[in-house]
């Protein structure tokens, strides 16, 4: 359920601008997706020029790209904290609440992003909205997906098991779990919905990121629009 839209140049501007925030000695959370990938490549070029940093990848893909880019990587358990996390989003609203999980990595992303002193989202204009309205990815334990579906319907959602592409069966996350994409329509109160989803038995993590994003860099055709949490 990856999102599309925006141009590669817009994504590149956002990612490269965020990479400029990385300082000597930083531990950096390395997000997942096409826009975050531009940031990872830019950080890799800075490492080639002598910048000393370590990266904490949030997915199989970001780990592979970090290694390819020459960024020393480590796990969250190996560091005292994360100085800066750079990640993408499927949608972000006017209050900087976000929906993530189009790449099925939101559980690990949320752990790393929440641990960071500063969390920066990089996006193209197609990801920006006044209110959140995309289906919310919900990662669930495999044996509980039917029960969680019923609970999500009780919250007013319409859940759909995410199916894999080019293989039979559902998407399986890096953590070995299944994903339900749950359509709630316009999410009027992301904080309340976040709390309700977190309280459902069988839910490992959901894709609502509330009160976590500090800054958003939106790449445009001629620059970067910077939005800060008030």
TrEMBL record:
InterPro entries: NagB/RpiA_transferase-like, Ribose5P_isomerase_typA_subgr, Ribose5P_isomerase_type_A. Pathway: Carbohydrate degradation; pentose phosphate pathway; D-ribose 5-phosphate from D-ribulose 5-phosphate (non-oxidative stage): step 1/1. Pfam families: Rib_5-P_isom_A. The keyword Isomerase applies. Belongs to the ribose 5-phosphate isomerase family. Substrate binds at residues 32-35, 87-90, 100-103, 127. Its EC number is 5.3.1.6. It comes from the Archaea. Gene3D superfamilies: 3.30.70.260, 3.40.50.1360. Catalyzes the reversible conversion of ribose-5-phosphate to ribulose 5-phosphate. It catalyses: aldehydo-D-ribose 5-phosphate = D-ribulose 5-phosphate. The gene is rpiA. Homodimer. Homotetramer. One of its GO terms (biological process) is D-ribose metabolic process. The keyword Isomerase applies. CDD domains: RPI_A (cd01398). This is Ribose-5-phosphate isomerase A. GO terms for molecular function: ribose-5-phosphate isomerase activity. GO terms for cellular component: cytosol. The active site is at 109 (proton acceptor). Signal peptide: none annotated. Keywords: Isomerase. Transmembrane segments: none annotated.
């Amino acid at each position: 359920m990856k999102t599309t839209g925006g141009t590669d140049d817009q994504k590149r501007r956002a990612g490269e601008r965020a990479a400029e925030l990385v300082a000597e000695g930083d531990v950096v959370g390395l997000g997942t997706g096409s826009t975050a990938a531009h940031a990872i490549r830019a950080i890799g070029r800075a490492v080639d020029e002598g910048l000393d940093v370590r990266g904490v990848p949030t997915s199989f893909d970001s780990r592979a790209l970090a290694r390819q880019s020459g960024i020393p990587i480590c796990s969250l358990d190996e560091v005292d904290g994360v100085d800066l996390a750079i990640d993408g989003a499927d949608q972000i609203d006017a209050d900087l609440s976000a929906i993530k999980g189009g790449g099925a990595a939101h559980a690990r992303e949320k752990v790393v992003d929440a641990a960071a002193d500063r969390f920066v989202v990089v996006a193209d204009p197609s990801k920006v909205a006044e209110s959140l309205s995309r289906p919310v990815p919900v990662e669930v334990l495999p044996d509980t997906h039917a029960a969680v579906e019923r609970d999500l319907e009780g919250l007013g959602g319409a859940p759909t098991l995410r199916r894999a592409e080019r293989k039979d069966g559902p998407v399986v996350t890096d953590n070995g779990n299944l994903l339900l994409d749950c359509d709630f329509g316009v999410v009027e109160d992301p904080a309340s919905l976040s709390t309700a989803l977190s309280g459902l038995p069988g839910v490992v993590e959901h894709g609502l990121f509330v009160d976590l994003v500090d800054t958003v860099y939106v790449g445009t055709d001629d620059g970067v629009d910077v939005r800060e949490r008030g």
